[in-house]
Amino acid sequence: MTEISSNPPSRLLSLDFFRGITVAAMILVNNPGDWGNIYAPLEHAEWNGCTPTDLIFPFFLFIVGVSIAYAMGGKKSDPSTHSKTILKALKRAFILFGLGLFLSLYPKVFTEPLEAFQNVRIPGVLQRIAVVFLISSVIFLKNSEKNIFRILLILLAVYWIFMTFVPVPGVGYPNLEKETNLGAWLDRSVLTEAHLWKSSKTWDPEGILSTLPAIATGLFGVLVGVYLKRKDIDAATKVVWLFSAGCLAIILGLLWDLKFPINKALWTSSFVLYTGGLATVVLALCYWIIDIQQYNRFTKPFVVYGVNAITVFFLSGLIPRTLRLFSITQQDGSKTDLQSWLYSGISAHFSSINASLIWAICFVLFWLVILWVMYKKKIIIKV
Q1: What residues contact residue 98 under an 8 Å CB cut-off, 6+ apart?
Q2: Minimal CA–CA distance to 355: which of 23, 41, 38?
C-alpha cells in the first residue's frame, strides 16, 4: 500500500537515520560485484566472532523493536484496541514473510514453478523480520516493561540451555559446530535440506531455533524505545542511561562469549547482548546529536533510506536477479548476462577487490537517487 505522507512531529529523526544507515549497509554488503573479492570488514565472520557486517541484521531487528514501541505505544494503554492492532501486525507479518518467499522463488517461479516451490528456501531475512515483528508486537502490547525484560532474559537463557546442554539426536552430545548443532538438526528435521540455505543445505543462518534469541533482539529494541518515549525523564538523563545500559550489555556479551561464543549464524545469546548493547550506544549517540542538539544537515541521504527501508531492501534483491535474466552478446561472440556485462565496465579499470566494492557503492547510490525522489514527493510505501 502506498501512502502520501510527511514525517509526523513525534517521529524520531535519529531512528530514521539509524535505520537508513543500516539498510544502506545491508545493500552494500549484499551486492558486491564479485563474491570472490570482498574486503574483510564487508564479509561475515567465518563462524565465531563478529565483523561490522555481522552487526547489520541485529541492528535492524533492534530498530524494529524501537519502532514497535513508538508505533504501538499509544494503543497499549487501551486493551480494546489490542485485537485490531495485533491483526494489523499479523497482516504485515504475512506480507513481509510473503515478500521474503517471493525473493527466494524469483525468477524460477516463472520459468520452472514446480521446481521452484519444491526447493524454495523457507527461512530468510524478511521472514525473520516478519516473525520477530509479530511476536515482539504481541509481547509489547500484552506485557509490562518488567515482564518484557523477564521474557528477554528467559529467551536468552533457554536458548543457551538448548544449545549447550541438550544432546543432539544422531550426534549424542551438545555442540556449536555448523552442521551438528541442535539448531541445524531441527532445521533439517522440520524443513528438510531442500528448503534451507542453498550455500549449506545442512543448516540455515535464519533457522527455526535461532529465531528465539532473534526475538530477544527485537525485545531489546522495544525496551529502549519505551525508555526513549518516557516524558518524565530529561533528554540528557536518557542518553546517559542508554549509554550505560548499552556498555553494560556489551561487557556482559563479551563475558558470555567465553562460554557461549558470539556467533551471528547461531544468533547466540552473547551475540544478542553484544549487538544489542552496540545498537543502544549508537542510537543514543544519534539521538543526542540529531534530535537533541539538532545537528541534522548530514542526515538526509540516510533518512531517505530509512523511511522506505523494506521497500528498498526488497527491490534491491529483485533487481540483480532480473538483470541476470537478460543475455548480452559480446564483441567476441560469447554471451553473458546483463549484470556481468555492466560489471565488466568497472572491473576492466580497477583491481578485482576495488571493482567489487565500487559496484556495490554504485548500487547504493543508484537506490539513493530513486529514494530521494520518493522522499521529495513524500511517498512512503508502508508494507
Answers
A1: none
A2: 38
For the stretch 106-125, pLDDT in tens is 999 998 998 989 999 999 99
The residue type of 154 is I
Predicted local distance difference test score (pLDDT) of residue 6: 37
- The predicted pLDDT at position 199 comes to 82
**Residue type for 333, please?**
G
Query: What's the DSSP call for residue 168?
Result: P
Q: For residue 381, give the 3-state DSSP assignment.
A: strand
DSSP secondary structure of 305-316: HHTTHHHHHHHH
Residues pairing with 49 in the sheet: 263
Largest separation between any pair of C-alpha atoms in the chain: 71
3-state secondary structure of 327: strand
pLDDT at res. 48 = 96
For the chain, residues with pLDDT lower than 70 are: 1-10
The three grid cell numbers given for residue 304, joined into one nine-digit string: 531517505
335's enclosing H/E stretch is strand 335-337
* Cell of residue 343, nine digits: 560489471
Q: What pLDDT is recorded for position 333?
A: 76
Residue 315 corresponds to which amino acid?
A: L
Only one residue has cell 530514521, namely 16
Cα separation, 207 vs 200, in Å, equals 12
The residue type at 149 = F
Distance CA 199, CA 26 (A): 19
Cell of 318: 529483485
C-alpha separations of 194 from 99, 114, 207, 345 in Å: 19, 13, 13, 36
- How far apart CA 52 and CA 349 sit, in angstroms, is 28
Q: What would the pLDDT profile of 174-217 be if each residue is shown by its tens digit? A: 999 999 999 999 999 999 888 898 888 788 999 999 999 999 99
pLDDT reported for residue 201: 79
What integer pLDDT is reported at residue 10 of this predicted model?
A: 54
Q: Is the bond preceding residue 107 a cis peptide, omega within 30 degrees?
A: yes
The Cα–Cα gap between 31 and 316 comes to: 9
Write down the residue that cell numbers 551486492 correspond to: 31
